[in-house]
Design brief:
Layout: H1 20-25, E1 34-38, E2 44-48, H2 51-54, H3 56-70, E3 73-78, E4 82-86, H4 90-93, H5 100-107, E5 112-113, E6 130-138, E7 141-149, H6 159-176
Antiparallel strand pairs: 1-2, 3-4, 3-7, 5-6, 6-7
C-alpha cells in the first residue's frame, strides 16, 4: 500500500471525500461502486468493484467461443481494463487499461463498427485495432464492453460478427442482474 499524505475527516453523516487527484488517477467516476474491505490492523480499504470482473471465468469461455466463431480476437472489458481475452496473447491484454477512445464509445451506450478501418486501439500498449464494440449495460448502468479486434487474419467484420458481440454483451449483462 502506498501512502498519499492526504488526510480527510469523516463528516457527521459518515462520509469521507476521496480527493479528485486520486479519483482521476484511479479512474473512479461518480456513481462507481466501491467494495469495502477491513483488516485486523484497523485498515479500511476501498477497491473498485467490477461486476464484469466477477464473471471473468465465464467471460473467458465466452471470449474463446466468440473468437472461434468470428475468427477475430475478442476482449471483454469492464469500464477500466481487460478482464478476458481470446485470439490475442492473454499476457499482453489482461489487466491492461482501456483507451480513452473506448471509454468515449462505451459512454455513448451504443455499438460501434470501425467501417473506415481507423487505427483505433482498445487497450493501452496493445497494437490490435478495433473492429467493433458492443457495450455491456446492466440495470441501466454501463458495466463494460465486448470488443472485436483485428488479428493476423485481418478479416473484415460482418453483420454476423456484430450480432454475435451484441448477443454476448446482452447475455453478460443479464448474468450480472
Amino acid at each position: 500500500m502506498k501512502a498519499t499524505g492526504i488526510v480527510r475527516r469523516i463528516d457527521d453523516l459518515g462520509r469521507v471525500v476521496i480527493p479528485k487527484e486520486i479519483r482521476r488517477t484511479m479512474r473512479i467516476r461518480e456513481g462507481d461502486p466501491l467494495e469495502i474491505f477491513t483488516n485486523p490492523g484497523g485498515e479500511v480499504i476501498f477497491k473498485k468493484y467490477s461486476s464484469v470482473g466477477e464473471l471473468s471465468d465465464f467471460a473467458k469461455e465466452y471470449a474463446d467461443a466468440l473468437s472461434s466463431g468470428t475468427k477475430l480476437s475478442v476482449i471483454i472489458c469492464d469500464r477500466d481494463r481487460c478482464v478476458s481475452a481470446a485470439g490475442i496473447s492473454k499476457k499482453e491484454a489482461l489487466e491492461k487499461n482501456v483507451t480513452v477512445d473506448i471509454e468515449k464509445i462505451v459512454e455513448k451506450r451504443s455499438g460501434y463498427v470501425n467501417l473506415e478501418q481507423k487505427k483505433l486501439k482498445a487497450l493501452e500498449g496493445v497494437e490490435n485495432n478495433v473492429c467493433a464494440v458492443s457495450p455491456i449495460i446492466s440495470g441501466g448502468d454501463i458495466s463494460g464492453a465486448v470488443i472485436l479486434l483485428e488479428n493476423s487474419n485481418c478479416k473484415e467484420v460482418n453483420d454476423s460478427d456484430i450480432s454475435l458481440i451484441n448477443v454476448a454483451a446482452k447475455f453478460l449483462a443479464n448474468q450480472m442482474m
